[in-house]
Each structure stands twice: as structure tokens, then as C-alpha cells.
Write a structure and sequence with these properties.
This protein is of the alpha/beta class. It has 33 helices and 29 strands. Helix 27 links the parallel strand 24 and strand 25. Helix 5 runs parallel beside helix 6 and helix 14 packs antiparallel against helix 17. It binds adenosine-5'-diphosphate (ADP). Adenosine-5'-diphosphate (ADP) binds next to helix 24.
Length: about 950
């Protein structure tokens, strides 16, 4: 039974999991039914109706030659588009089959310069053997999901087919994965068998990313198959030499290669090199922090106002991509950073050379992308000309560096990276082959120049001779036969012809054969003309064929050198990015940071790199070090607290991107991560529970930050009731100070927190000064030591004109409250259990002991203060719980048996009661008892010492 065209379409559509199918029908690609509606909507095409077997279907189409831009537009909007081509069947009929699927992550011809990543993600732990089967989903349901608590290793591969970049790593778990995905912002994410059933993962990806989620054959993620794919692509030794020993990483890499191959776009060959990186090479920047610091776009999603936009002076697309990479993936390797800084330093001081380099780079084409196009076969002669000309810049750049002040700096090393001889040979090869200004299409001829190939030269000569005969024919005929109004021309249907004006058409010689009559003229041919036409066509065809062959061979040779072309591209991009940093440093008077391995961040006259561009910025100092690792920043709203803190984070980040920094002087101890939490109003608008989000972010920081991290907290606990908020902020401060020990800046409007500096040794207060006169506030933007002199709330009441007696009274009430030492500070040991004195809002008095037991008020207050002191002292040393606090001998005469059971002892008793003896191994029991003993003896020091 013959099926209609729509039925054929629908059948093909059912075969593919692509979102849209474009099916060739003669000279058009057609979309039917839902696809027609979708395409019409997205691309503004007209929908008509097509009837088939009694039904009517929407139909939309684009001409064959115009598919590419439509495809690109659809795919860039996130759709996966299958393309079915038509072919002739043996019986002379037509059939169609899907020849490729274009997906967001494998689209070669993109409309912008940004990197375009395909990400494959696979959870470690899901067993290969079962990868293809249903077991995978069962596994997710059984709690193996990556997004659930606990760290599972995750393999990730990021492939950019437009540049051939292929990065592979193994991550520690969910938070790292999320940060990494956010950083690369892939156009398409292909999750492995477990993750594709992990709702939390899928939802997070949808929330964080604009990219498309695609499902792919689970088998491709199986380790055997994946390892094979990696070896196939990069060679057995390469896979080993880059240390791809992580099973999840290999699986992700293999699946990425298989996916790229499967889409049939022919871009696999652009992956010339596999780069394995370790998460530990880079400064950890979670997704929230990348957003908060507005590295590549503002919180509103605009590029204007971002750090990248503020400092980007790159002149090439590849340089721009690289600079973005440097900012979003700051490094931890001090040597590498110093090298980058050396280069920036040298370039910043060499204005003329820098100008020359920039001018040269302005003519550079995107070699990384061009290389990918040669390997996929889509490169035309113009692309090769661009490669030729850009390779030609290399020696000129070398000239601009050698024999200048830059010659023995890392700038010269950058240019020495690629194989310069190889690049020269390739360029010469291209110079010898390509015509100066070749046409865009490959089939037109004129791609190659004379002297490249003798056979081609001969054909060109014959072609030209034949053309010459025809070109001069009109003149000859006029003269020979005394005709006026004669032209010789050619068109598709008639071929070559002699056209004679109607007025003289009767005078043509007898051997003219008429082929067509037009309104004002007649067309003729002669045997001689037909013969010459044949010769022209024959030679033309032979020439085009040979030229195309020669050109393809040439393109193939360039494709074989894709890695070299990519190398040169990388070198130019690096030079561009370095020059950009230098230009900014020189023009904005930035300074080279001194990188150290100590835990410090000391900034003299620092500025905010973005704000300083639009504001008359007041520089500020900052000092964080071993003795002063935690700053509580207070000051009224809009005084500049968050600018001050972001500035610190950005200076840290810039230094670890290898950039100069906006400051007079900066000593920057390298960090392993930068974590921020910033109260964002936008989240309310997004309908997310702000407080929940706030707590999730806080939780992530407390879990992830280390003593080598920088933590920026801009208000914590604001999203809940005041005392709730203070309690959380207070406890978080203690934890960060005592346990995490990260360098921290904490802006808060809870004035109560400023008292923490009395209790926690490394906490210091700073405030942003304001000048108040007659109710007018002038923001001084200057950060000074010490807390603000009054609570923000009372301050606002005063500003708002609340009567003076009320304000004064409020001040005094506040003082009273503070004198009561409402909240203890818990310094000290890692597991120093103390009960907290709880402030009772309704009575304004203290209820000692959170557990409600009846120790006296005074005791509790004394006790807590004392504990804070003890804690402080312990804190100055190493605070491991086993550390020196009392040998058993110390404990012997401690008053553990006194009448009053102290809070610590009570806690220990509780733990003892709760302990499940049957479940606890003896070794653990011993260490538990040891720890209890420590805690009881340590907190039972006599209070009178105070
Ligand atoms: P806060 O966090 O205290 O509410 P912000 O940091 O948001 O205050 O700063 C408020 C405004 O003051 C911003 O518009 C910022 O540009 C400006 N500002 C902050 N610090 C400075 C400074 N050092 N010099 C000049 N302007 C500043």
C-alpha cells in the first residue's frame, strides 16, 4: 500500500528521539504536523496545509540550500533536529532516511564566538554490567543517586566540537558537579544511566542551565565500551599518558565521543587531544559564588557590569574565550600563576610592543574553530585562506617579541609552544596552493592558483583558450557577415548562442541555425559554436573536478595538522588574553599581587574592579591573617559593606587568575576555594523560599570550606525571625572560626555579633564609617577597625526622627541587654559540648541550660563566659580534640564528682545513655571513653579562675 508523504514523515519521526525532523522532499526540507507548528512558531515560517489520506496536516518548508541557518537557529534554541535526506531507490522511486541528528552540543556552525560544550556526566558506582538494563533506574530509586547525600565520584567530560577542546575529570560529588556544570554552562547535557533517572539531578540541571538534556544509549557509558572509544580516538598510549585511570572519567569521555559520533555531523575528528584535569588544580567556586561575584554576567543576567566585561580587552574570539576560562577557573598552582603574572608584568611595561601585538592579533582568525572545520570537511577555500593568513602572523608576532624587553619573558615562551617549523611548512603549502581571493563555494573553480599542479595548469590554459574563442566570436561574426547587434552569451537552457537583433535577423548567414525567437531578437547556433561549447564544458568540468580533488587533498592535509593549527590558535589566544590583562593593568593602575602560601589576604588601598570604573571610588584596606582571620563588617545599609567584601573576593580571584589587581599593594595567600553567600532579592521573585535557599547556601559553605578558603557572608539569618537569625549567625560564626577556620568576611546588621570579638580570638570588627550631622548621613566609604557604635535598628529610628527620649531609652535598653551577656560564645575544641544560655524574649531574662534543667542563672553565665575563654586559648593552638588537654593524670583530681553536674558532663551522660553497646566496636568504645574523659575534665576547671 503506497503511503503518503506525511505518513512517511511520521514513521521516520517515530524512529528518532530528536525533537524535530526535517525531511527532504525534492528541493525542500519539509516539516509536518506538530513539527511544522513548532518550526513555524520558532522561525517565523508560513504554515500551509497538506492533505494526506483524507486528513489535513500543517506543513512548513525551507529550500534545500537554506537549511543550515534554520537548523542552527533551531538547535541554538535547544532543539535536537534530525535531518532525513532523500535518495533514489533501485526501482526509480524515492525513499528517505535520517542521515544525522544535529544537537545543541554538537553544532559546528554556531552564530557566536562562545565555547559550546557538550557535557556527559556519569555517576561512579553504577555498575557497567547493568548499565544497559533496567537495573539502572532501580538503582536510582534505591538511593544511589548522585544528588543524594554523600559523595559519590562523578565522571564528567566536556567537549567543544567547534574548537576541539575535550576536557575530562572526576569530581567528588554532587556539589562539585553542580559547580562544574555551572562553570562550563554546556549547551547540552547527556547524563549516564543512573543520573538520567535522578529527578533531583535533572531538576537542578534544568534550574541552573540553559542547555538541553539528552538521553543516549546507556551502553556507551559502560566502561569497556567507553575505554575502547577513548583509545580509538586518541590512541592507546595517549589515554594512559594523561592518566585517565579514573573509571567514571573514562566512561564520561567514551560516552561523549560515542555521542558526537552518533549524531553523524562529522565533527569527531576535531577532538585531537584529551585534557584531563583535576578539580584540585582549580579554586573551588560553587555555582552560587560564580553568580554572586558576577564573573561573566550580573545577577540580572546581563554581561554589562560583569567582571569579564569590565576587564576584557581581547581582540580575538579565542582570546575572549580563554580570558573567560581564566576568570571562571582560577588556579592554585603558584608557579603557573607567577609565570602568568611575569608575562602580564612584562607586557604591561612594554607599551609599544603591546600595541604592535594587539594590532597583529586583530587580523587573526579563530584557528581553533577553523581547525574543527577542516576535520569535519566543511572548510572551504576561504577557511583555508584564513588559516594561511593567521599562521602567517606567528613569525610576525615572534618578531614583535624577540629583541625587545619581552624576549626572555614567559611571553616568548607562549609563542615557542607550537611547532613553529611545522606551522611555517603548512603555511607555505597553503600559500603555494590557494588562489589569492578564492570563491566561497568549493565547486565553482578558481580555488587554486597557477603553478600548483601542472595538470591543472594545462586544463586552465585549455579552458581559457576555449573561452577566448567564444569571447571574441561576436566581433568576428560582425565583421565577417556585416551584422550589427550581435552578442554571444550563455544560459542554462540554451547553452552558448549567438543573439541577433530582430531588425537584422534576416541577414544572418545560412549556416546559422535558429534555436529561439524572443521579442526583439533571435538566437542562433553554429556547428562551430556547438563544438567549442563542448570543449569549454568538457574542460570546465575536468578543471572543476580536478580542482575539487586537489582542494580536498589539501584540506585533508590541513585536517591532519589540526592539532598543530589548534596549538597555534591556543598560543595566539593566550597572547591575546595576557595582553588584555596587561592593557587593563596599565590603564587602570593595577598592581601585581604578591602571592604567598600563608593564610593571609592583606590589601592596601584596594578597589572594586567593576565599581571603580563608574564611580569615584574610595580605596580601602583589608587585613586577614592568622591572628585576624574573621572580620565582622558592620555599617548602615548602603554604606558599602557588600562592595568591600566582594572587592576582597574579586582581588583574591583575579590574583589566582594570574591578573594584576586593583590595589596599591596586595599580599594574597592562595586559597583552595572562594565561597559566598549574598542575600539576593531576585530569589524572592523566583518564588523560591529565600530562607531555605539561604540555609542551603550556608550549609554548603560550612561543609565545603576549609582553612585555606575565603568565605564571604553578606547577611546570614535575615530571612527569619530576629532571634532565630542571630542564633544561626552566631553559631555559624563560631563554627567557621573554630572548626573551619577559613578566612572570612561577614557583613551583618545584627549588632549583637560584634561582641563575638571579645570571645573568639581571631574575630575582629570593622565598620564602614558614616558621617552624621543634623540627621544627615554622609557615606564616607571608609572601612575602619571596630564595630559601629550603635545598633542599626536604633540608628534608623534616630534617622527617621523618632523622638530623642525614645531613641535614648532604646539605646539604654540595648546596653542592658548586652551587659547581660545574652549569649555565650563557644570557642574552643572541636567537640566542646556546652549548653547555651538562652535569652528569654518574653521575660528579658536568662534561662540557663537549653535543656531546661535547673542550674542557677549566675552559674550558667559564669560558666559560659569561662568556657568561651577556655575555648579562646585552645583556639590559638591547634584545636584537635585530643590535643594536650589533660593527660589522664590531669583528670585525676578534677572535681568530676562534685554535686553539680556541669553541662559538659550532662552531655556526656546523655551520650552514654544513648550509646548502643551492641553496635559499637570495642576500638571505638575506647576512643569514645577517652573523648568523654577529656571533655569532662576540661570543662570542669574551677570557675574562680576568672
Ligand atoms: P551595603 O552592602 O552596605 O548595603 P553596598 O556595598 O551595596 O552597601 O554599597 C552601596 C553603594 O555604595 C553602591 O552603589 C556602591 O557602588 C557604593 N560604594 C560602595 N563602596 C564604595 C567605595 N569604596 N567608594 C565609592 N562608592 C562605593
Amino acid at each position: 500500500m503506497p503511503t503518503g508523504i506525511v505518513e512517511e514523515f511520521l514513521e521516520l519521526k517515530a524512529e528518532t528521539d530528536a525533537d524535530v525532523l526535517a525531511m527532504q522532499c525534492g528541493d525542500f526540507y519539509e516539516f509536518f504536523a506538530d513539527d511544522a507548528e513548532l518550526v513555524a512558531d520558532e522561525l517565523d515560517l508560513t504554515v500551509s496545509q497538506k492533505s494526506s489520506h483524507g486528513s489535513s496536516y500543517p506543513m512548513a518548508g525551507v529550500p534545500l540550500t537554506e537549511l543550515t541557518p534554520y537548523l542552527r537557529a533551531l538547535v541554538e534554541r535547544g532543539y535536537r533536529v534530525a535531518v532525513a535526506d532523500q535518495y533514489e531507490t533501485d526501482d526509480g522511486g524515492h525513499a528517505r532516511e535520517i542521515v544525522r541528528v544535529v544537537t545543541p552540543g554538537t553544532l559546528l556552525e554556531t552564530s557566536d564566538d562562545d565555547a559550546r560544550y557538550l557535557a556527559t556526566v556519569v555517576a561512579g558506582g553504577d555498575d557497567d554490567g547493568r548499565a544497559g538494563g533496567e537495573a539502572a533506574s532501580g538503582e536510582a530509586a534505591s538511593g544511589e543517586a548522585v544528588s543524594s547525600e554523600g559523595a559519590h565520584p562523578v565522571g564528567v567530560a566536556f567537549a567543544d566540537v567547534t574548537t576541539g577542546r575535550f576536557l575530562v575529570t572526576e569530581l567528588d560529588g554532587w556539589a562539585d558537579l553542580r559547580a562544574e556544570l555551572y562553570r562550563f554552562d554546556p549547551a547540552e547535557v547527556v547524563p549516564g544511566p543512573t543520573l538520567r533517572n535522578d529527578d533531583a539531578f535533572l531538576e537542578a540541571v534544568r534550574e541552573d542551565l540553559t542547555g538541553t538534556l539528552s538521553v543516549f544509549d546507556a551502553e556507551a557509558f559502560a566502561s569497556g565500551r567507553a575505554a575502547h572509544a577513548v583509545r580509538d580516538q586518541f590512541g592507546a598510549s595517549i589515554a594512559d599518558s594523561v592518566g585517565l585511570d579514573s573509571a567514571p572519567a573514562t566512561r564520561a569521555a567514551g560516552a561523549a565521543l560515542a555521542y558526537v559520533d552518533e549524531t553523524g555531523a562529522g565533527v569527531l575528528a576535531s577532538m585531537t587531544r584529551l585534557t584531563r584535569y583535576a578539580a584540585a588544580d582549580h579554586v573551588e567556586l560553587d555555582a552560587t559564588t560564580q553568580r554572586n561575584l558576577e564573573l561573566t554576567e550580573t545577577m540580572r543576567g546581563e554581561t554589562t557590569g560583569s567582571l569579564l566585561e569590565a576587564i576584557d580587552h581581547t581582540v580575538t574570539a579565542a582570546g575572549g574565550r580563554l580570558l573567560r576560562e581564566w576568570l571562571t577557573r582560577p588556579k592554585r598552582d603558584r608557579e603557573a600563576l607567577e609565570r602568568r603574572l611575569d608575562a602580564v608584568d612584562a607586557l604591561a611595561g612594554a607599551t609599544l610592543e603591546r600595541d604592535r601585538i594587539t594590532t597583529l592579533l586583530e587580523d587573526a582568525y579563530d584557528l581553533e574553530r577553523l581547525a574543527a572545520r577542516t576535520t569535519s570537511g566543511s572548510a572551504g577555500a576561504r577557511a583555508l585562506v584564513s588559516i594561511r593568513d593567521t599562521l602567517g602572523l606567528l613569525p610576525e608576532l615572534v618578531d614583535a617579541v624577540e629583541e625587545t624587553s619581552l624576549s626572555s619573558t614567559p611571553v616568548a615562551d607562549v609563542l615557542a609552544q607550537p611547532d613553529r617549523d611545522g606551522a611555517r611548512a603548512l603555511r607555505e603549502d597553503l600559500e603555494d596552493a590557494l588562489a589569492d581571493d578564492p570563491p566561497k563555494t568549493k565547486t565553482e573553480g578558481g580555488l587554486l592558483c597557477r603553478g600548483y599542479d601542472p595538470e591543472l595548469d594545462e586544463l586552465i590554459e585549455r579552458h581559457e583558450a576555449a573561452r577566448e574563442w567564444i569571447d571574441t566570436l561576436a566581433e568576428r561574426e560582425k565583421r565577417a557577415h556585416g551584422l550589427s547587434h550581435v552578442t554571444v552569451d550563455r544560459n542554462k537552457t540554451d547553452g552558448y548562442y549567438i543573439q541577433v537583433g530582430k531588425s537584422v535577423a534576416d541577414e544572418v548567414p545560412a549556416h546559422y541555425r535558429e534555436i529561439k525567437t524572443l521579442k526583439n531578437s533571435k538566437r542562433f547556433v553554429t556547428d562551430e559554436l556547438v563544438e567549442h561549447e563542448r570543449e569549454v564544458l568538457r574542460v570546465e568540468e575536468a578543471r572543476a573536478e580536478l580542482e575539487y580533488e586537489l582542494f580536498e587533498a589539501l584540506r585533508e592535509r590541513v585536517a591532519e595538522s589540526a592539532a598543530l593549527v589548534q596549538d597555534v590558535g591556543r598560543a595566539l589566544a593566550t597572547l591575546d588574553a595576557l595582553t588584555s590583562l596587561a592593557t587593563h593593568a596599565a590603564s587602570e593602575d593595577w598592581t601585581r599581587p604578591t602571592l604567598t602560601d600563608t593564610r593571609e589576604l592583606a590589601i592596601t588601598a584596594g578597589r572594586h574592579p567593576v565599581v571603580e570604573q563608574t564611580t569615584d571610588f574610595v580605596p580601602n584596606d583589608l587585613r586577614l591573617d592568622a591572628d585576624r582571620g574573621f572580620l565582622i563588617v558592620t555599617g548602615p545599609n548602603m554604606s558599602g559593606k557588600s562592595t568591600y567584601m566582594r572587592q576582597a573576593a574579586l582581588i583574591q580571584l583575579l590574583a589566582q587568575a594570574g591578573s594584576f589587581v586593583p590595589a596599591r599593594e596586595a599580599h594574597v595567600g592562595l586559597v583552595d576555594g572562594i565561597y559566598t553567600r549574598v542575600g539576593a532579592l531576585d530569589e524572592l521573585a523566583q518564588g523560591r523560599s529565600t530562607f531555605m535557599v539561604e540555609m542551603q547556601e550556608l550549609s554548603n559553605i560550612l561543609h565545603s570550606a576549609t582553612a585555606d578558603s575565603l568565605v564571604i557572608l553578606d547577611e546570614v539569618g535575615r530571612g527569619t525571625a530576629t532571634y532565630d537569625g542571630i542564633a544561626i549567625a552566631w553559631a555559624a560564626t563560631e563554627y567557621l572560626h573554630n572548626e573551619v577556620r577559613a578566612r572570612t568576611l561577614f557583613a551583618t546588621h545584627y549588632h549583637e555579633l560584634t561582641t563575638l570579638s571579645d570571645h573568639l580570638s581571631r574575630v575582629a570588627n570593622v565598620h564602614v564609617a558614616v558621617d552624621e550631622r543634623d540627621g544627615d548621613v554622609t557615606f564616607l566609604r571608609t572601612v575602619r577597625d571596630g564595630p559601629t557604635n550603635r545598633s542599626y535598628g536604633v540608628h534608623v529610628a534616630d534617622l527617621a526622627g523618632v523622638p530623642a527620649p525614645v531613641v535614648d531609652r532604646a539605646d539604654r535598653v540595648l546596653d542592658r541587654l548586652r551587659e547581660e551577656k545574652a549569649i555565650e560564645a563557644r570557642g574552643g575544641t572541636a567537640d566542646g559540648e556546652t549548653t547555651q544560655a538562652v535569652f528569654d524574649l518574653s521575660t528579658g531574662a536568662f534561662d540557663a541550660g537549653g535543656d531546661g534543667s535547673g542550674a542557677g542563672d549566675g552559674d550558667a553565665t559564669n560558666g559560659t563566659t569561662e568556657e568561651a575563654r577556655t575555648g579562646d586559648d585552645a583556639d590559638d593552638g591547634d584545636d584537635s580534640p585530643a590535643d594536650g588537654d589533660g593527660s589522664p593524670a590531669d583528670g585525676d583530681d578534677s572535681p568530676t564528682g562534685s554535686d553539680v553536674v556541669g553541662p559538659a558532663a550532662r552531655a556526656v551522660l546523655e551520650e552514654l545513655t544513648d550509646l548502643d553497646l551492641a553496635e559499637t566496636p570495642p576500638v571505638e568504645l575506647v576512643s569514645l571513653v577517652d573523648a568523654w574523659q577529656d571533655r569532662v575534665t576540661e570543662t570542669a576547671e574551677p570557675p574562680q579562675e576568672r
